[in-house]
Specification:
Two copies of one chain form a homodimer. Chain A is built from nine helices and seven strands. By secondary structure, the first copy, chain A, is an alpha+beta fold. The relative contact order of chain A is 0.13. In chain A, helix 7 packs across helix 8. At the A-B interface, helix 3 and helix 5 of A face helix 3 and helix 5 of B. Chain A binds a DNA duplex through helix 8.
Chain lengths: 222, 222
DNA sequence: TACGCTCTGTGATTTTTGTTACAGACACCC
DNA sequence: GGGTGTCTGTAACAAAAATCACAGAGCGTA
């Protein structure tokens, strides 16, 4: 299997909707679109930067964050393979610049569509449009929930919710959790200690093992 | 001028993009779409409610809010004439229910498009699609800024920003401002008193007169 | 004018969150 | 094994925001 054909296969696997395109159209769009690889920590885009193109993620994940002048940050959402950074569509369609930062969380492989190709697809592929709209809709509701959580929920509840929403032995640092919540590391440490004392989880270096997810979930929904 | 023709004229005035439609298509869509009038305070939609149709605002404004179980609320954004509640598009396109509440702020007149008509328009009118995408993009960035403000800015700065963003002698109650910020009335009263002592504004019953908008703006951007 | 209503002012107190400042624990590398 | 850097625990403190509890002001109206 040739290199390019392999890429095409992966692309179609991740983005089944692209099968709807006539073969000639497909190769026309992706003929010269190489796969881009970005290691963890790469800043894909940043605030007030114009938009270069539209990424289709084949593997990896990206954190989209807002960061405050004092160094604190807050995660707006996460983009995984098969999704696409809707913020980019927003830039491309709204003709504005980025208003957040995108950082590679797990090594990314992606194909980047030129703005022109993106617009063309939007114009004449109904499935692609639906896909983009669906993502938009999802992000919008996610963001509304996020605003609501930040405004009304206490940090302990938000932390509990975050913990149960992630893989179980969770390998991460307190600082990373704080950055996801938009808070400070000490707060997270304190709260985690509290949870541990309740017997809800066990703590280790860069490791959180949840023992009683039910209790945590109940607490988060209080 | 007949009643219906007058409505059509107003609709086209508010939504110039509809002029792009062939006349037959236009009348087909809006033939039986009467103008709906809703007085202040009406709850147009609410959380977990399915979506009835797509509104095109001719006049008035709608506050889209999240409300907490303890009675506090927070405004997500405002929808004015010529705009449209993007949340509704989100529902219609994402097939989900509303995740916020819409309340009429100033008496509303609107035309409601059926879900079917909305989908049809999306499918075959490029200008309409662009319009909707533009609104989506705008809301998305607005919401991101809101999250950022709620997470990182102090209440006094947010209040200052809110004040300068509104018509000058501002006629409203402290409670209404608190609801817009997602905070409590007492906080707003206290902070306003502080601003008044700085000589930045003058307070009256249901009235705030800004004297020094520059100082307020500078403070809000601190 | 007297009553009732909503709106505002304000102090006291509590809760929640953030900050500062270290000390110890652990992991990796030489 | 010792040094170095990151990660975690924790206490004391400061700041911001929320809550409670009223008093009084302004306004419409009976």
């Amino acid at each position: 299997m040739s290199y390019s054909a392999e890429n095409d296969a992966r692309l179609l696997e991740r983005y089944p909707l692209l099968r709807e395109l006539p073969a000639t159209r497909f190769s026309e769009l992706f003929a010269n679109a190489g796969v881009m690889r970005l290691p963890m920590g790469t800043v894909i885009f940043d605030e007030n930067q114009p938009c270069q193109g539209f990424p289709l993620l084949l593997a990896g994940s990206v954190r989209v964050i807002k960061s405050a002048p004092n160094g604190r940050e807050l995660q707006l959402y996460r983009v995984g393979a098969g999704e696409s950074c809707i913020l980019t569509s927003s830039c491309l369609l709204g003709h504005s610049n980025y208003r957040a930062r995108g950082v590679v969380e797990q090594d990314v492989e992606m194909v980047v569509l030129s703005p022109a190709a993106f617009r063309a697809l939007m114009a004449d592929s109904a499935p692609f449009r639906d896909f983009i709209f669906g993502l938009f809709a999802e992000r919008l509701t996610d963001l509304m929930e996020l605003v609501s959580a930040v405004a009304f929920q206490k940090l302990d509840q938000r932390l509990a919710a975050l913990l149960v929403s992630r893989p179980n032995p969770l390998r991460t640092t307190h600082q990373a959790l704080a950055d996801e919540l938009g808070s400070a590391r000490e707060m997270v440490s304190r709260l985690l200690k509290g949870f541990a004392e309740q017997g809800w989880l066990r703590l280790g270096r860069e490791q959180i093992e949840i023992i009683d997810p039910t209790a945590l979930r109940r607490f988060s929904e209080l």
